[in-house]
Amino acid sequence: MVSDAVYRDPSRSVEDRVGDLLSRMTLEEKAAQTAAPFGSAVDVHTPPEAGWGTVVASLSTLDLPPREAAKRGNELQRKHVEGTRLGIPVLIAEEALVGLKVRDATTFPDAIAQAATWEPEIVEQMGRTIGRQMVALGVRQALSPLADVARDPRWGRVEETYGEDPYLVGNMATAFVRGLQNAVGGVPVIATLKHFLGYSASEGGRNTEPAHLGPREVREIHALPFEMAIRAGGASAVMPSYNDIDGVPVTGSGQYLGKLLREDLGFDGHVISDLGAVNQLYTKHGTAEGTPAALAQALRAGVDADLDNRVSAAQVAEAIRSGLLSEADLDRAVAAVLRAKFRLGLFDTPYADLDLVPETLDAPGERALARTIAEKSVILLKNDPVDGTNLLPLSPDVGTIAVIGPNADRALGQLGNYSYQVLDSMVRRFAHAADPLAKPEDVAELAGKTGADDVSLLVESVPVVTFLEGIRARVGRDTAVLFEQGCGIATDDRSGFDAAVRAATAAEVAVVVVGDQAGITAFGTVGEGLDSATCALPGVQRELVEAIVATGTPTVVVLSHGRAFVLDWMADSVPAIVSSFFGGEEAGSAAAAVLFGDVNPAGRLPIALLGSVGAAPVPYWRNQQPFAYVDGSTAAVFPFGHGLSYTSFAYRDLAVEALDVPTDGVVRLAFTVENTGDRDGEEVVQVYGRDVVGRTVRPARVLVAFRRIPLAAGAAARVTVEVPASMFALWDEPDGWVVEPGEVRFVIGSSSTDARLRHAVTLVGDEVRLGGDRALFSTTTVQDAATAVDEFEDATRPPALHGTLVPITADSTVRECLDHPLAGPALLELLGGLDEDALAAAFGVSLTQMVTYSAGRFTQPMLDDLLVKANPRAGAAEA
């Protein structure tokens, strides 16, 4: 090792150090930096002479307490720093989506549950917690978070996403990245955005299958969250996806990894492949002939590190020697890896300080945060009255509760697939089956057992509070809690039904906990490689729920799940339904707090729950028009953004700063939200926008702002929202991002279908073509309504009339009527506050025809009244 080399000098620039080190490296040493072996398949603690660039899962697979794991990590690092010719440190990476995936680290709620909080601030706080834990153990790269936009509930990895809306996904991913990468001052760590790009739009919802996407959907939907997290969050790494887009595999595409990612989105970090994805260019996609050719294609395209179950350094060197890959392309990739290490300070401070490693990474404060996120993620989907009173919250005086269901008292039934407990239990079970020294009877016992009910906890880690434990801890001594499992997750065994029915019959209320088991390719009903054809409750769980409801005992269903189930049957028969998604280590405590009213639920759906899986994919912005199949509807049973509360909220006093806003300006709206109930609560205000006319087809409604707001009973808040006009930019090749003049409509409410306030503004001026610096986020501020002052125009009054309005007549179409500033609101009011999107099928029908066809819902007197309201000047003249 050369001690006085430029690359050893921390006072020199990163680029100087990278260039100097690169000039000193042999081909084998360069190739070694592109290798990222996976710890459960490769003995990463025994590196070769040239070392490795990155190691993944080197600590999680040890199953050691934090301090012991950090010690082993330091030993691995020492072998690189002190045992290789140039002393290049290794980059230690682990998964971190639901917490750092090592033993004794906090297990937070799954990503889809994090998204259900609709609170990026608390996700950022979680990211900071994970980042601190990483630094303590010497882990400097997290292979998280996902910025995939969930397109199809059949896809098993929906649980790892932040939902179906790109703006919500982008906000959550940005918050995670910002928190994690800035957790410890002076000690940077890397967040890895995945999976770039279009992975979640796979054909049929099948994992790794092709995505059929045009350039507009790529830019406007799938690339947007990545761009938000890169530009605003500063994400330092990206992982490409397994899929191909229109025949082009992303992992081998310079178009996506070079032009789009680096040039257009401004990314300057390093790219690490998904596990085995590079070799799939040969084995799956067939765009490369052999492994060396696949590596050459990926490195040329922009991949810097090859994550694999085997070490690929020798094949990279072979690709250079055989002429498949130029040394310049290899140098580009190696420079990216080295640049990341210099930016992290690994050359100067490579080791974790063992004295600072805590005994546990799940201290009381960290558990409290896990519980808070779980509580905030709980969604009250339905809460109907029983004997005149809403079933929830449950009375603390209840005498007997029956807790029933396969996920009621099973820790693995409430944890995400990338949690340490789930993933490493699976790894160990597979390892037992492959162990050549295993006893024959053990191998026989494991043979063929890879189903959801075959999984068992095989690793030690943090305590997990189940739903049964949470309820028992919450109720008083005078409450009897009965428990019956009833059935398994995915089997057809109904032998436990009778006992479950007896327990429900003997109780005053039944809490039935059903849902999923997370897994990866096996041992689950949801997760990576576990896609669904039906999105139904697995096994005989539906029959169990129906059997309990049939007893007549008031029934609450708690869903502990990762998949967006089809729940039309449940919505028709069960009085109260709660979604916990996978709520992590404190899911049981959080659910109990909501069930008994200690916490007023305010979670909101980040993905709709449909009435028919055949309708998928139907994102909410295409779900506003209730078209139907001959044997089913596309409508959502519970729509995007939906969630109930134990209190009520009213929206009023909408005001706008200006009716005309420049195409390069900002739309400013203000409105008041009031807690009109008798309980403190939180409301998630949601603002949706629609570009009415565009050169390309525009979505019917897209989320442009949201905010979770705590309000005491009787309190009101004044909410001001600033939406840059650039958020309505459309992608149009070859012009790029374009903001067009024209009308933009806003809908404000508590879900994508619950419209409380509406207003329209007009973007005026010339078309604006935007670059990479366009505004991607809106701004929402909240003030006490009693003291807030704004000077916006009152939007609740009829709008100022600009010149002469086109008269509305009986022959005007419904669309013309809705577009009219006076007739539109009047028609919706006459129809009982109906959402205008519900009239989509009648847009081309005349008002007279609507009277004829509406079967009495819209009558001739109502039409006469409408015409008077729509034409006030004409009415005055006639009088």
Fraction of residues in helix: 25-40%
CATH topology of the largest domain: TIM Barrel
- Alpha-beta content class: alpha/beta
Radius of gyration, taken over Cα atoms and rounded to an integer in Å: 29 Å
Record field, number of beta strands:
37
How many distinct helices? 25
- Uncertain runs: 797-803, 875-879
CATH superfamily of the largest domain: Glycoside hydrolase, family 3, N-terminal domain
β-sheet strand percentage: 15-25%
Domain Fibronectin type III-like: 683-752
GO molecular function, one term: beta-glucosidase activity
Organism: Yinghuangia soli
Keywords: Hydrolase
Task: Explain what this protein looks like in three dimensions.
Helices cover about 30% and strands about 20% of the residues. It is an alpha/beta fold and about 900 residues long. The protein has four domains: about 30-355, Glycoside hydrolase, family 3, N-terminal domain (TIM Barrel), CATH 3.20.20; about 380-640, Rossmann fold; about 645-795, Immunoglobulins (Immunoglobulin-like, Sandwich); about 800-879. The strands form eleven sheets. A six-stranded parallel sheet has the order 2-3-4-5-6-9. Helix 2 (about 25-35) crosses helix 11 (about 315-320), helix 6 (about 165-180) packs parallel to helix 7 and helix 16 crosses helix 20 (about 585-595). The longest helix has 18 residues, at about 120-135. Mean pLDDT is about 90; it is low at about 795-805 and about 875-879.
